[in-house]
């Protein structure tokens, strides 16, 4: 059981990111002091949305200069903190050099933050943003599981630097975190393993992969049909709640799948149809798998990825999050409609 003193500052890496933005909002709204290590604390444009949050909340935010791959650069920001959130990790699918662009930042960044935790006496708990991809590499992997559904005991063993490198980067980073945690007994580790994160951003012009898939539904990219992908999804606002509870509930522990429902891309589009179907070219059917397999490489999808994911159900058990992290997931329709509306408001789409 770990009790965190809310009068002490809380450090969060990757504070300008899509997920972290909502965690920062929650912390500030609760009146906490947030220590935000960022690459350039003197860039008002980059920090604009966080500053706006702080201006309208009882909490305060302080910036520190740090870099994910610079050893020891988190030391100053972590000073005096009992709780550390480590959310910083690249989320990009098309990379030239997977080892350099994905695996190294995820793995070395985690080692850098946790080595500093080991040197900072005040820290009692670390909440690490991992992912469901550290549990399931490909949807086809579910076929070997009881009820074809994954829980927190499962680890991704099928991804590599050459196949699903993003999934691999999250897996090795989380495994390393548990390894570092096991070698000491001062601080405990709680990992958050979200599925695909959707919902409006604090920064309405984010470039995360989450934005791309919804953008393609509304900009005509999918008007020939939606890819037959089955995806677990969670609202970014619910995910922030999960992080907060993982930080402050004394009995939070271990790995925690944070996922609301699993839907196909077409089912997601159908949830948008009532409100947006008349004005935007939402997909009305699913593309045949062979066509995606054939054309996938042109879209940056390897044929192996298409073979092992398209047409398979992706299922996880979220019962631990409901029972232990007190999660109460909002409806998927609300998530998708709020997200799409934000894109409409920021002129992402041109109406048909």
List keywords for this structure.
352 residues; alpha/beta; Rossmann fold; seven-stranded parallel beta sheet; three-stranded mixed beta sheet; globular; NAD-dependent epimerase/dehydratase family protein; oxidoreductase
Give an overview of the whole structure.
The protein is α/β, with parallel strands linked by helices and 352 residues long. 39% of the residues lie in helices and 14% in strands. Helix 5 links the parallel strand 5 (125-129) and strand 6. Helix 1 packs parallel to helix 2 and helix 4 packs parallel to helix 5.
Largest sheet: 7 strands, parallel
Give the uncertain stretches in residue-range form.
Answer: none
Q: What structural class should be given to the helix and strand makeup? A: alpha/beta
Q: Which range best describes the helical content: under 10%, 10-25%, 25-40%, 40-55%, 55-70% or over 70%?
A: 25-40%
CATH superfamily: NAD(P)-binding Rossmann-like Domain
Distance between the termini: 56 Å
How many strands? 10
Strand order of the largest sheet: 3-2-1-4-5-6-9
In the CATH hierarchy, the third-tier topology is known as: Rossmann fold
Please write the string of helix (H) and strand (E) elements: EHEHEHEHEHEEHEHEEHHHHH
Using the CA coordinates, give the radius of gyration: 20 Å
CATH architecture: 3-Layer(aba) Sandwich
- Portion of residues in beta strands equals 5-15%
Protein name: NAD-dependent epimerase/dehydratase family protein
Family: Belongs to the NAD(P)-dependent epimerase/dehydratase family. Dihydroflavonol-4-reductase subfamily.
GO molecular function: oxidoreductase activity, acting on the CH-OH group of donors, NAD or NADP as acceptor
Keywords: Oxidoreductase
């Amino acid at each position: 059981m770990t009790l965190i003193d809310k009068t002490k500052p809380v450090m969060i890496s990757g504070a300008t990111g899509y997920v972290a933005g909502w965690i920062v909002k929650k912390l500030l709204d609760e009146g906490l002091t947030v220590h935000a290590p960022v690459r350039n604390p003197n860039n008002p444009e980059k920090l604009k949305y966080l500053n706006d949050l702080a201006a309208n909340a009882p909490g305060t935010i302080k910036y520190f200069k740090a870099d994910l791959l610079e050893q020891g650069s988190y030391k100053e920001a972590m000073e005096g903190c009992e709780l550390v959130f480590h959310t910083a990790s690249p989320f990009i699918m098309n990379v030239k050099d997977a080892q350099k662009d994905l695996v190294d930042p995820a793995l070395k960044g985690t080692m850098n933050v946790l080595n500093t935790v080991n040197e900072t006496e005040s820290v009692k708990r670390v909440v690490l943003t991992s992912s469901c991809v550290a549990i399931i590499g490909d949807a086809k992997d579910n076929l070997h599981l009881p009820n074809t559904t994954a829980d927190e005991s499962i680890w991704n063993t099928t991804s590599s630097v050459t196949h699903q490198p993003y999934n691999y980067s999250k897996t090795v980073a989380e495994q390393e975190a548990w390894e570092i945690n096991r070698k000491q007994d001062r601080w405990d580790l709680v990992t958050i393993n979200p599925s695909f994160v959707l919902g409006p951003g604090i920064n309405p012009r984010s470039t995360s992969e989450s934005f791309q898939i919804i953008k393609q539904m509304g900009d005509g990219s999918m008007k020939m049909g939606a890819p037959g992908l089955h995806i677990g999804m969670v609202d970014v606002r619910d995910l922030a709640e999960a992080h907060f509870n993982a930080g402050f509930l004394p009995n939070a522990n271990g790995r925690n799948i944070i996922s609301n429902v699993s839907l196909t891309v077409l089912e997601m589009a159908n949830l948008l149809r009532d409100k947006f179907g008349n004005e935007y070219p939402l997909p009305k059917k699913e593309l045949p798998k062979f066509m995606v397999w054939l054309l996938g490489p042109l879209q940056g999808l390897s044929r192996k990825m298409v073979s092992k994911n398209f047409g398979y159900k992706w299922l996880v058990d979220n019962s631990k999050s409901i029972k232990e992290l007190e999660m109460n997931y909002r409806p998927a329709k609300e998530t998708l409609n709020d997200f799409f509306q934000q894109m409409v408001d920021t002129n992402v789409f041109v109406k048909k």
